[in-house]
Structures are given as structure tokens and as C-alpha cells.
What we know:
The complex is a heterodimer of chains A (353) and B (351). With 353 residues, chain A is α/β, with parallel strands linked by helices. Chain A contains 14 helices and eleven strands. Chain A has helices at 8-23, 53-62, 84-87, 104-109, 122-133, 149-160, 163-185, 215-219, 241-247, 257-263, 273-276, 299-310, 319-331, 337-345, and strands at 28-32, 38-42, 48-50, 114-117, 138-140, 194-198, 205-206, 223-224, 237-238, 251-254, 280-282. In chain A, strand 1 and strand 2 (38-42) form a beta hairpin. Chain B has 351 residues and is an all-alpha fold. Chain B has a single domain, classed as Orthogonal Bundle (ABC transporter involved in vitamin B12 uptake, BtuC). Helices cover 79% and strands 0% of the residues of chain B. Chain B is built from 15 helices and no strands. In chain B, helix 9 (210-229) packs antiparallel against helix 12 (251-273). Mean pLDDT of chain B is 87; it is low at 1-12. The chains are: A alpha/beta (353), B mainly alpha (351). Chain A binds chain B through residues 53, 72, 96-100, 199-202, 204-205, 227, 229, 234, 236-243, 245-246, 256-258, 262, 266-268, 270-271, 289, 293-294, 349, 352-353, and chain B through 39-41, 68-69, 72-73, 76-78, 127, 130-135, 185-192, 194-196, 199, 204, 206-207, 209-210, 318, 322-326. Chain B: Keywords: Cell membrane, Membrane, Transmembrane, Transmembrane helix, Transport. Chain B: Pfam families: FecCD. Chain B: One of its GO terms (cellular component) is plasma membrane. Chain B: One of its GO terms (molecular function) is transmembrane transporter activity.
Amino acid sequence: MAGYLTNSMGRALWCMMLVTLIATGAGAREIVDMTGRRIDVPEPLQRVYVASPPESYLACAIDPSLLVGLTLPLPQRYRRYLPEAMTGLPVVGGFFGVGNAPNLEALVKTRPQLVICWQKTAVSERFDKFLRQFGIPVAHMTLQRLQDYPRDIRGMGRILGRPQRAEQLAAYAEKTLGEILPRVASMPASERVRVYYAEGADGLSTDGRGTWHAELIDLAGGLNVHKGEKDDLFGMEKISLEQVLLYRPEVILVHDPVFFRKIFLSPRWRNVPAVKNRRVYLIPRIPFNWFDRPPSFMRLLGLQWVAQVLYPRHFNIDMPREMREFYRLFLRVHLSDEDIRLILESREVPEHG
Amino acid sequence: MDKAAIADRPVSPSLNRLWLPGALCLLLLGLVTVSLSLGKYPVSVYEILLFFRQQVTGAAALGPERYDLLRNILWEIRAPRIAAAVLIGAALSTSGAAFQSMFINPLVSPGLLGVLPGASFGAALGMLLSRGWFGVQFCCFAGGLLAVGIAIGIARLYRGDRLLMLILGGIISGSLFTSLLSIVKYLADPYDTLPAIVYWLMGGLSMTDSHTVLWISIPVLSGIAGLLLMARYLNVLSMGDEEARSLGVNVSLIRFWLIFFATVISALTVVVGGLIGWVGLIIPHIGRMLVGPDNRTLLPVSALLGALYLVLVDDVSRLLLDIEIPLGIITALIGIPFFILVLKNARKGWG
Lengths: 353, 351
């Protein structure tokens, strides 16, 4: 901080910051973000902007009324599966390596009292500097490993000043992980199902064992057939169909509905064991993907779904009941039987074309 | 072989015209056969021979399951891909050679009039709007034609050097569609659509199935044939407009058809394989080094060389690493240094 205050501009900004603090009236509250930085945020906190989609969705699950805007346009078709307060939010933009970066001035215009953004990238540091000039504090928060979700959800709740609500969600996360992980650990290695994660319109992009993107396969006890050499933010390795044949996956989890429609029609895939035995599943994606891209809190439900898909005998999960509870708790929506069928079949893609 | 070919050229061009394309045809046939036996899935040459014997004679030498697997791998996975590589390589090289002659410029590639950015934009837009594959392919093709149409339209707005105006029109149209593409990428969902667009733009043949290849082969082969048939006029055009007119050639009409054929087949290569750069630029140079500037020989030789080159590059893309390397990346990596080397010699062929 001190570095910025050595010149007169810095002093001017410092004054501005003071003015902002005074203007907001009420006191300040000290929070500690994920990197351990201590940050003063105004109290009561009413206007928050979260710069990356998964974290933004979590903040919405905790309390959508706190947000000044969204990072991405919401899928319009799924509006009714989202909390009402969330669907009315304007789109400001966000940071996730590629794609729409927010217009910083537009962001400042929404007068956020706190900005929560991803940990350390070259871009986020510039972002940080810029916002500090306007006296807007920045907290860092990254959702990554699913096992850390209980901790991270509570952390997000503390930052947002909604600890009780976050506790409810964190408790659900803990319960889910506690139900699935020990049972997976007790499963003999010989029973592990070989799983291939098909991404992209050709189904030939994948994320391998041990990667963040395909984490649910590992957690649910599947053996991801691809070893995975690339574990970066973007992920997606290109492999050949012959390689998939060699891998002999027993189950294929499909990310792209276009590919899902094609896989049984195309003669090219017919000798892959999962296709032969018709154990190919389209990952539910309403209102956000349950598995990955974006890797959001929906993965808590996704974990149960993957476990159920891979080991229907071990896990006797009543998916409709779980879904009802999950959507009610996290998204505050009530699901009808028809909704549940639609979501599980992911039939949102129009059939034409 | 090149030295001999170059030395032969002035003495007996007719000889070159016959034996070199023939030799290249045989070479291509050999490479295709070898490529068919190459792949991640281990299949021995002996098994392939048994398989083909069984296909021809019906004598069952392989178990039914193995036979079906081989049919799957050879006919449904490898063959369409190799066929697509042949078609795309030939299409890009022929249209590149035709453009270089028509524009009397060795630095020209089939993308000169903006067909590649146009088609890329079309494909990206298709992915953004519909998610059906046919829609994407259609938008891709239409985008390519539209971009070239705009380039020609701009060229027509002003009087002056026709070729220069066309080149400028192409630059403008290409830049326009490049920025439109950026807009689409910016708007695309970063989790779903954007990765699809990015991979498409890197170029690759992993999507090709026999249905697409069969469907696309008809217009591509007709387009190549169209260009080959016009080789004689192309020779006249490459002497300059004035000369051509004085020889009684309808320059605008010929040029229109040349651009039309080259555009259609280049756009179709994007439909099948995404953006595969540099092939249409360097292969015609190699062709020219081998057989000289006579388009009647140069075009077929370029087509064959392009096919050979792309099949080879696709083999590398399939086999080199555990992951597939997008084709467009390899063609660019090989193409750029090669082009720098060729540039020095290229002028000779034009002398």
C-alpha cells in the first residue's frame, strides 16, 4: 500500500478513500480473506461485486441481494431455476482468463463497497490497483477443491457478513462429502469403474486424472482413463478416438449436448465399451453445470450424481429427493416432478438443427 | 530429384508434365496406405492384409469381433480422416497456386480475399447461435463466400488497378471478419462455446466422419477440376491484364470463375477441418520449384503435393504425442521456417 502513497496523487486518493469511508456512515468491519490479508469493509455491507462466475454464484446462493451485478449473462432458459433476486441483476462482466472483462468504469459506477476476485493473476493485480484508487477494497477468494468447500463457503459467508446462511450451506457440503468420500475409500480398487470425460463438440477433449476440472470422477471413485498432464485453469486436452478405444472406458460422462446426441448415431464410437453397453450420460447442466465449466457449488449435487451413475449398487441415492433439497437450499426454488425430469435429461437444447 | 527436375524444365517440359504427376500419384497412394496402418490403436500390417482379404473374398480369417473392430478403426475412423486430409491439402494448394498466378504475386495465399476469416467468423457465429452441427457448417461456408463477396464489392467501388483493388478489398474484408470473429469470441460463453471456437480455429480433422467427407468431396473435387481446366487461361492472365486482353481473353469473366472456384473449395476446407494455414502458400512454391510456372503442370502437381503434405502432417498430429496436436499449429510451425527458406529461391521460378 505504502508504495502508492508516495506521490501527491496517492495522497489525493487517500483523501478520497477517507471521504468514501465517512460517506458510508456506519462503522467498518475487519475481514480476513483467503490469502490472509486483513481488509476493512464498510458495515453494513450492501453492495458487493464478485469478479469470477463460480464465486459469484456462491455469493448469490448465500444472498443475491448483496450483489451489484453478474459476471456472465444468465442462461435465460433457466431463469426459473434461479433465485429471483439473482435474475434481476445487471451483467457487469468478469475475469476468468478469457472472454468478457468488465468495463472498469462501469464497475465503479455500480458503487461496490467490496470486490471479491480470484487469487493472483497478472490481470487481477492490475484490477486490484485500479480499484484501490477508488477506495474499493478487494478481497481474494478462490473456490477450488471440492473437499475445501465447507471451509470456503463459511469463508465467503464471513466476508459477506452472512455467517448463518453460509453455515447452512456449508453443513450440507460437509454432510454430502461425509456420505460419499468414506464409502468411496472403502471400495476395493478392482471395482473401480473406468470413466472417460468427453468434452467439446467432438467429444475428444478431456481432462484427466487428478485435474481440477475432472475432480468429481476421482472423488466419486471412478478411474479416469486419461492420465492428464495438463492441470491448469483452462484444461481440455485433445486426444484421438483411437486413444479412447484403447482406454476402454466403461462409462462416458458427456459435457456437450451436441456430442451426446451424436455419440450413438455415429458409427465411429460404436466399439467403445461404454457406448456398446449404453453407459453414456449427459451431465445435467441446469441452471449451471453439475460437474465442471463452471466448477461451481452445483458440484456438490454433481458428486452424488456421478457416484450414483458409476456405482448404482453401492450408492442408493434418491436423486429426485436430493435435488429438491439442494435446489431449495442453495437456489431457493421448488422443483416439480417435471422439472426434475427435465434437469436430469438436460433436454433444454432445442431439438432442431 | 528437385535438381534434376529444375534442370530438366527448360529442355523437356512435356516430359515433366507426365511423369511427375504420375509419380506423385503413386507416392500419395503409398502414403495413404501407410497412413491407414498408422494410429494409436495397435493394428499390425498382417492383420490389415487379412482384413482386406476378408473384405474382398469373404474368407473369414479374423474373428467377427476383431473384424468389426478393424472395420471400425480402418474405415470409420482412419479412412475419412485421411480422405479429408487429401481433399483439404489439394484444395488449399490448388487455390493457392491459382491465386498466386492470377495475382502475379508469390506472397499470396488462398485466404487473400478474406475467405478464411469469413468462414471462421461464420463457424463461430454458428456455434454461438445454434448448437446444431449442420447450422455451424452452413454458417461457416456462407461466411467464407460473404467475405469474398465483400472484398470484390469493395474492389468494384473504385476504378484503377483491378488486381491491386482486389488485394486491398481482401485486406479490408479479412480484417473486418477478423474483428467480427473477436466480437463473437468476446460474447461467447467462456465455459461452453468459447473453447469450441478456439479449437475450431486451431484446425483439426478429429471430427471428420465418412458422411461429411463424402458429402464435401463432390464440390471440392469439382472445384479443383474447375481450376485445373482453367489453367490455360491462368497462364495468359499471369502475363498481365493488357496482354491477356490483347489475346482475346475475357479477363473479368475468367477472373470471376477462378475466384469463385478457389473460394468455394477454400471455404469447404474450413467447414471440414477448421483453419489450416500456410498450406496454400508454401506448397505452390514447392510445385513451382519442381515444374516451373506453367499452370497446366503446376496446378495438378500442387494439388498432389498439398494432399501428400497434409496427410503427412496429420499423421504427425495423430501420432507424435499422447494428445493430438491441432493441425493448424503444425502446418504453421513447419510452414513459417520453410517459407523463409523458399522465399530466396521463389523468385527464380518467377524469372
